[in-house]
Amino acid sequence: NAGVMQNPRHLVRRRGQEARLRCSPMKGHSHVYWYRQLPEEGLKFMVYLQKENIIDESGMPKERFSAEFPKEGPSILRIQQVVRGDSAAYFCASSPTGRGLLVEQFFGPGTRLTVL
Amino acid sequence: AQSVTQLDSHVSVSEGTPVLLRCNYSSSYSPSLFWYVQHPNKGLQLLLKYTSAATLVKGINGFEAEFKKSETSFHLTKPSAHMSDAAEYFCVVSDPSGNTGKLIFGQGTTLQVKP
Predict the structure, then answer these.
(1) Higher pLDDT, A88 or B102
(2) I need a labelling partner for A45 at 20 to 30 A (CA). Which of B1, B43, B73, B105 fits?
């Protein structure tokens, strides 16, 4: 059973370009979380999605950032017109269910975004 | 609001000596607490989680943590450090508001293990 897959592992973009980060949850998992880790900091929650639904996007910046989890295919975190401050590691996690506080979230290896 | 504070940003121990990584939490609810480990350029792995069934929680690789409500602490310990334990450790609380299960991370503690 493959774990959470993220690609690309490393992404370099110039200011103003778009970044697309992909996350394939573990088999059987229909709940996806995105977190951002800035240098020397812990992870910060961004968004929680179920298939075709955004459940909680309270951690998403109001502009330039969007996320989706279509019925088929991976979850996508999209950052438009990237700026240097977007440089960070972006982690995806999945769980079989979102309800229940003790449900473990399984993390992917992350995508390290560098904005030049 | 939920929050966690990891009291040490960096801990250095010698191989074979005990490990103590400190964590205090703040929660308006009965908290769910976790410790995750992150090895360089890797994803995060769950070490252990507090289920409220027992205050002393045993995890993988010989780690354990004790939930102390009176002290609002959830410190991580290991009797004897191994070189492979060198990594970043995160104390995490689950935010029950809205029942989304989103996780709130501490700042992290870097564990260095010297030979």
Answers:
(1) A88
(2) B73
Domains and CATH numbers, chain B: 3-81+100-114 (2.60.40.10)
Count other Cβ atoms within 10 Å, centred on residue A44: 15
Which residues of chain B are within 8 Å of residue A88 when distances are taken between CB atoms?
A: none
Place of tokens 């308006």: B28
A interface test, pick of B6, B51, B102 with most A CB neighbours within 10 Å: B102
At B29 the three-state DSSP class reads coil
Q: Which tokens hold the place of B59?
A: 């995890």
Tokens describing residue A63: 């502009």
Question: CB–CB of B43 and A107 under 8 A?
Answer: yes
For residue A32, pLDDT beyond 90: yes
Q: Which helix (H) or strand (E) holds B9?
A: none
Q: pLDDT per residue over B79-99, tens digit each?
A: 999 999 999 999 998 876 655
Position A82 scores a pLDDT of 97
Query: Which residues of A touch chain B, with CB atoms under 8 Å apart?
Result: 3-4, 33, 35, 41-45, 48, 55-56, 59, 91, 93, 95, 98-110
Minimal CA separation from B114 to chain A, in Å: 22
Token reading at A87: 């440089």
